Amino acid sequence: MIPGGGQPNMQQLLQQAQKMQQDLAKAQEELARTEVDGQAGGGLVKATVTGSGELRALKIDPKAVDPEDTETLADLIVAAVQAANENAQHLQQQKLGPLAQGLGGGGIPGLPF
After folding, report:
1. Which residues form a coiled coil (predicted)?
2. How many structural domains is the chain composed of?
3. CATH classification of the domain holding 89
């Protein structure tokens, strides 16, 4: 039952929206601080990105460096960064998914979204 004869309590709705916004901002800050890794070539190339997708580090094993074949090294770097970004996206879904569902899935009663 919605108090007030079917009208949602606007103050309560605003408080819920503000809390969700604060929770979302906190989760985004946490993502920006959290680092995840990705690798390619059996660990010859490792990339580290933040949960928000910012590349922070790239480690290349000397065994991966062949002056005659820089294309393979480039491919390994791209693959490692992509793997790290996939891991970052997975982390984003874990951290932000419940918050986004709350906003878009009827998490605030009385609002149309």
Report:
1. 10-37
2. 1
3. 3.30.1310.10
